[in-house]
Amino acid sequence: MSRYRGPRFKKIRRLGALPGLTNKRPKAGSDLRNQSRSGKKSQYRIRLEEKQKLRFHYGLTERQLLKYVRIAGKARGSTGQVLLQLLEMRLDNILFRLAQSEGNYAEALQNYYEAMRLEIDPYDRSYILYNIGLIHTSNGEHTKALEYYFRALERNPFLPQAFNNMAVIFLSSGVGSDPKDKQAILQGDSEIAEAWFDQAAEYWKQAIALTPGLCVCVVRKEEDSMIIRSPEPEVKILVDKDPVKTSFEEWAKPGHFSRTIAKGPDTTTWIWNLHADAHDFDSHTSDLEEISRKVFSAHFGQLSIIFLWLSGMYFHGARFSNYEAWLSDPTHIGPSAQVIWRASGITNELQLYCTAIGALVFAALMLFADMFSDTAIQLQPVFAQWIQNTHALAPGATAPGATASTSLTWGGGDLVAVGGKVALLPIPLGTADFLVHHIHAFTIHVTVLILLKGVLFARSSRLIPDKANLGFRFPCDGPGRGGTCQVSAWDHVFLGLFWMYNSISVVIFHFSWKMQSDVWGSISDQGVVTHITGGNFAQSSITINGWLRDFLWAQASQDPTTRRIWFGIATAHDFESHDDITEERLYQNIFASHFGQLAIIFLWTSGNLFHVAWQGNFESWVQDPLHVRPIAHAIWDPHFGQPAVEAFTRGVLLAHGLATLTTEMETERFVVQKCRISSESSFVRTLRRLGPLFTGAGTAILTLLGGFHPQTQSLWLTDMAHHHLAIAFIFLVAGHMYRTNFGIGHSIKDLLDAHVPPGGRLGRGHKGLYDTINNSLHFQLGLALASLGVITSLVAQHMYSLPAYAFIAQDFTTQAALYTHHQYIAGFIMTGAFAHGAIFFIRDYNPEQNEDNVLARMLDHKEAIISHLSWASLFLGFHTLGLYVHNDVMLAFGTPEKQILIEPIFAQWIQSAHGKTSYGFDVLLSSTSGPAFTAGRSIWLPGWLNAVNENTNSLFLTIGPGDFLVHHAIALGLHTTTLILVKGALDARGSKLMPDKKDFGYSFPCDGPGRGGTCDISAWDAFYLAVFWMLNTIGWVTFYWHWKHITLWQGNVSQFNESSTYLMGWLRDYLWLNSSQLINGYNPFGMNSLSVWAWMFLFGHLVWATGFMFLISWRGYWQELIETLAWAHERTPLANLIRWRDKPVALSIVQARLVGLAHFSDVNHYGKEKFDSEGEEEAKIGTEISFDSSILKKEISKVPSLSDKWEIYGKLQSPPRNSAPTRLHRRCFSTGRPRANYRDFGLSGHILREMVHACLLPGATRSSW
């Protein structure tokens, strides 16, 4: 931000110059830091300090000071003297010199009386008299104040402030009465005051018409008078009916929310600032209500993008996937893009198209909700007022409830003032309008022509008389009629949509430019009407070049550098940093942005569904799912038979309404009905609706079985129903613990204020904490993100250990993708919590309000907190890495028995207490003779112990020394990430090195040479560094989870237990295990199905390296590189034809780091997902080819070399796709002649016998070998 909002006098005192408002002087430094510095100042420091003195003394921004310097340089005379005169002539400085701003009224009156002796304009003299009246009003001299107000009105009758102040004097104390006498109002003075208010209100109405943006509230009823009442304790719901200032003209300007950014770009930094400040609502305004509105508005914009994205995805799938072919033959045709689409209930491609179009519509709705969510209610009275004043009301009348409206005759038309804007009616029309209307008519006629042709020729045409037999949509008619394509009725609708969009664009462009040019505008005090675009529509819109130059490209042609692009994106949603932002508008923008987010989600959903509808084989697959392979809808079918579909759609469930499934109780009822439908196997429609639900045995729908279903390997549906019912009752009770609008329960504010900390070690405890949280959106968002991040990580853990969906435990790829996805999301959310916590400490933290409470105590003890976290991180790092290195050395020396292997006895004891018997502990549920074990077998959770002790599921994985080491490695990552984030948040306000850090904001690259070039210490830099540690930590978590489960799925858990205790085992048996095929994909011999993934792997590392280049390189490198590229482009003929217009400016350090961080994060996540997907393929192959462990060990023991042992071990246990056993298995499957083929693969007879025993060679019997 260019405008400084922090403590001004501290900075002036530090610079050594004071404006005279205090007698304090800077003390001579006596500490060691000041003594160690040299007393000699450099020329750069002297110039910088003098410039800073001017800025803070006169309250200037950097850009304003440069402007005054340029003006002074062009003027005649001494530049310094002219600059001083210009600065002293500023209005705020004049008020300061007049001594009125500091409350020295005697000196101010003396200055005003001296000014009255000068020959000045009566208009200026009226304001001097008005200010004298203000001083008398402040001193309580109401009679003198009224005298000067009268004298001011004699010289300037259009001074509504004077009328207003006079009315306040009459109403508050009365003329001629003691100001302290409250009974003076009851002696008739209120009627005089109301008369003055009426007169003031009349002038206020004219002022609003002539001065846009002014507003006034006229109080007419005694019950709505200005008497101050004490606030009522009950909750009040307030509705704001004041119009919120908004206009398309303002939205069309990039960076309109900031005066600095709105002036236009000079360098590319403008682009970044536009991105950075757009959503920084706190810097826009301090009004919490407006901040909340901005946040609300921003959500609509986000939703719009999500809906748009969804629509695009569905359209993409519907248009380009092999949906229909896959539906027709799902067992032989592989799906292209529909593997996650089945559970949406889509049964045909038309539904996919409808979903895509619906998401597009929702995206548009969310976009308009983003723009108008905070103003839609207020806009309606404005337009109604406009219509009433121009059509229904008499001249000079005002619409009821109108804030400002007048109708004047001006220039042959009606000049209407609406909400601070001026409109000229009727709208003049000319040649340009004639042309545009005919172009619009042309597009409408073409659209109707295409659509009408499609309708009339839907049944038949001369080319295809039997078109009705082909249906509404068919791609081509085949070669019989010469390959006739794009003649179906659907193709006409498809083409008509594009013409419809063109027609609507013509209307919108015409309306927008016409209104800005000839209708919308403002009127000056002299009566001059000025339109937004200066009336250029009539002259420019008659040519295409005029449309491009003066309307479509008008804004882009004003910016001379590339930074206009960056600023336009950077600060668009940083609502808090926008100028003239208020709390009310901030909340509106935030609320609207949520709808934008929903629009994007719906659009994305629509795109995905449309994608399947256009190119998927959904209908064919639904008709014959056993022989048709699905293409793009693996999760779209509802997995219900026809009776269940009938029950869910024809009266059983929808009888009481699906819309009520919004609470835990309703979710439980939903699950219970599914249980009852499935358990009773009766799908006859009944008129009793939910009556059977409340009869019969409750154990049929609410159970406590525990464990997993033996066929689906998922939780029992009746157990889940029971669980949701219990949670519903808990929530019902907990929901009344705290007070809401109904006044039931405890007040959180009272609980926090009444809290007495134990032993007094937390100071004042939670005093002031409620107001701090309630008045800070960043504090609230930080708490919400922290909670949601922890919950998301727990969801990742529970989704694989307690699978709720049928058969999902057998879908390894889905399990790995869900776990990885949720862990990465949890990591980003939790780091975001600390980031907003740091912003809270910088922007919203009030030391006086939180004096000596838990927040203040935490800041006071931040050194102890940070040092303890640092110690814990160092301990974990050195000891964990030391154990890994020791074990690696022991393996390298051939003495694996000397490894340090630590059993996780505490974790094993916890698992044993829950029923796992493999560890040998005799405690609680693992004790077969204990009462808990006996009760668990007979009374409750009979399936729990079976599930816990089965080694084929992920409920309680068996853990050992490898798990102990990797968990401590993960703890190292978590503690280091937390250390960086906590240090950044607690030091956000200041540190010993930089005590005034809060004055520099959340992100700043360096502090300049004043403190020796202090860099990389902002709160943003801590967040930036912590993201890398977070990504590393999540990588360790997902690697551990993935390898552990691959060995579990392959039935080879011992491989993880043996190899995970040293680093080379991790590299050899997991991280580098499948790299050979990717490496071979780069050479000419690797031109196979894996070559695409190999090149994608290479491309991912290229982007990753590019991200590191951004992270490491500083500004000078990028500036030189961009200047070189610009010079090269300017020398090319193509660039000269296009006109190289923008001046390229390099990224700042913070901007370059942000680009690098985005590259690093995206490629890191992409690479992990790619790695997991390959691992699942290997896991599937491993499950297909498995051997008896005793025979396997016997075969390996015959081989003397350790490397050969590993080769055979790999071949037998999990051969890759092109290994000899796999290829033999495939050839035997296709030919049915295994004995004639086995010699081609060079396999030993023992391996072949084991493959026959495992029934992997079709057509072969054990006796034949």
UniProtKB/TrEMBL annotation:
Compartment(s) where it occurs, according to its Swiss-Prot or TrEMBL record: Cytoplasm, Cytosol; Membrane; Rough endoplasmic reticulum
Disordered: annotated segments: 20-44
Membrane topology recorded in Swiss-Prot or TrEMBL: Multi-pass membrane protein
Reaction equations catalysed: reduced [plastocyanin] + hnu + oxidized [2Fe-2S]-[ferredoxin] = oxidized [plastocyanin] + reduced [2Fe-2S]-[ferredoxin]
Domain Small ribosomal subunit protein uS4 N-terminal: 3-88
Source domain of life: Eukaryota
EC number: 1.97.1.12
Example of a GO MF term: metal ion binding
Keywords, in A-Z order: 4Fe-4S, Chlorophyll, Chromophore, Electron transport, Iron, Iron-sulfur, Magnesium, Membrane, Metal-binding, Oxidoreductase, Photosynthesis, Photosystem I, Ribonucleoprotein, Ribosomal protein, RNA-binding, rRNA-binding, TPR repeat, Transmembrane, Transmembrane helix, Transport
Residue spans crossing the bilayer: 350-369, 434-452, 690-708, 720-738, 777-796, 824-843, 864-885, 964-986, 1022-1043, 1092-1112
TPR repeat coordinates: 126-159
Family assignment from sequence similarity: Belongs to the PsaA/PsaB family. Belongs to the universal ribosomal protein uS14 family.
Protein name, UniProt field: Small ribosomal subunit protein uS14
